[in-house]
Design goal:
By secondary structure, the protein is of the alpha/beta class. It has helices spanning 9-25, 77-90, 96-114, 127-130, 141-151, 225-230, 235-254, 271-281, 285-298, 302-318, 322-336, 339-361; strands spanning 35-40, 46-53, 65-70, 119-121, 155-174, 181-199, 204-222, 257-264. The chain is built from 12 helices and 8 strands. Helix 3 (96-114) packs parallel to helix 7 (235-254).
Length: 402
């Protein structure tokens, strides 16, 4: 993750090294742990804090590794031809959806593997093994069980649909100041994806997210219409960017993942607070905390005391002691009586509530043996089994997974 604010090059190097090692050390970290303390150069003093964020959807404790499968790819040449015809008619970049699917899958796997909870692999499957096709429904449980057995995984994340769409419009306008004409061009691009998580052990669809949309609008102006259009970013590149977002979004939906947040603190008010800020700049957070604690305990001025209390709350958050951090933040909210301290109390309260969710999501159990096949009344087996959607999001447009 790239820092949003400029920091010294030596700290940038350290940050990059930490991120490169994250995938290997992440399982040793506590679900409450907060790390990656980096001072930021900005108008107000601040540090970056790495926070473990819970997933929106909790997976079964038995799931440790996902097989990530692309079921959205065209099943035969005819469907590929239809896609090319659609691109020619709508102006979409031919082949962009194929490349976009790959980007979404790559990012999905990368984000899942960066999670402290799961691993992910992409098995090599034929279209028949993945049961792909334009109008296919759910993956049959017979096929899902074969995929998991073959790949030694417990669950499947499937990209069920991927489609991009772009619209381009131009307008001729008159500059209010110069009264000269100019052209305005804008392109609106969307990437629509659908995802499911299959858990063969209980024949359950743990998550079913339909019509997840990532969209962006680009706008440029020039003296000529073609000039304005030419300034717009490459269409294929925009689809790739949105595809990456789609894969990352869904991985974070189903797996706890680290995010980097900015936390401001008070670095002035008296000489002691300025001294503490110098300790932070030197990466001596324990030294800063000693000063903040002393000011908070012995300062009669409520404004200065509140600032030290606020900074102590931040220190305890970075140490993973969220309850102590909240107590300091509440004291700061009383003494400072400002929105900044009240908002920080709310953030810490939410983080404490998240810890129980994370505790449940980080649990792991050994997988139980798969259930016997369900028998139909005629004595045959039903490969599809039952499904249990977990409240996947449906867009207002009411679209569906093919």
């Amino acid at each position: 993750m790239t820092p949003r604010f400029p920091i010294p090059s030596v700290l940038v190097l350290g940050l990059r090294q930490r991120l490169a090692l994250a995938a290997r050390v992440t399982r040793a970290r506590s679900a409450v742990a907060t790390t990656l303390l980096v001072p930021l150069a900005a108008c107000a003093p601040a540090i970056q804090v790495e926070v473990l964020q819970p997933a929106m959807v909790t997976m079964p404790a038995e799931v440790k590794t996902f097989a990530v499968v692309d079921r959205s790819k065209a099943k035969n040449v005819g469907e590929t031809v239809l896609g090319a015809l659609e691109g020619a008619i709508t102006g979409e970049a031919i082949g962009a959806d194929t490349e976009g699917r790959h980007k979404a899958m790559e990012q999905m796997v990368a984000t899942l593997n960066a999670s402290p909870r799961f691993d992910a692999i992409v098995p090599e499957l034929t279209n028949d093994q993945a049961e792909t096709g334009l109008f296919d429904g759910e993956l049959s449980w017979q096929a899902a069980e074969k995929i998991c057995k073959r790949t030694n995984t417990e669950a499947i994340v499937a990209l069920e649909a991927f489609d991009s769409d772009s619209s381009l419009s131009t307008q001729k306008k008159i500059d209010d100041t110069t009264k000269k004409p100019y052209f305005l061009a804008d392109r609106y691009t969307t990437v629509l994806t659908a995802w499911r998580v299959y858990y063969p052990a209980t024949h359950t669809i743990v998550d079913d997210l339909r019509d997840h949309s990532d969209a962006q609008t680009w706008e440029q102006q020039a003296d000529t219409e073609n000039g304005a259009i030419g300034l717009l970013p490459n269409q294929t590149d925009t689809i790739m960017s949105l595809a990456v977002n789609a894969g990352d979004d869904y991985a974070r939906r189903i797996s706890p993942n680290y995010i980097t947040v900015r936390r401001a603190y008070y670095g002035k008010g008296n000489d002691r607070l300025k001294e503490a800020k110098n300790h932070v700049k030197a990466l001596d957070f324990d030294g800063a905390a000693k000063i903040w604690s002393a000011v908070a305990d012995h300062q009669d001025d409520p404004k200065l005391r509140g600032r030290a209390e606020f900074d102590m709350a931040l220190y305890d958050e970075t140490q993973g002691d969220l309850n102590a951090a909240l107590e300091w933040a509440k004291k700061a909210a009383v003494d400072l009586h400002n929105g900044k301290s009240r908002n920080y109390s709310y953030i810490l309260s939410q983080r404490i509530a998240d810890q129980q969710v994370l505790a449940d999501q980080m649990k792991q159990k050994e997988a139980a043996p798969p259930p016997p096949p369900a028998h139909s009344p005629s004595g045959g087996t039903s490969p599809s089994g039952g499904t249990s959607p977990s409240g996947g999001h449906t867009s207002p447009s009411g679209g569906h997974v093919p």
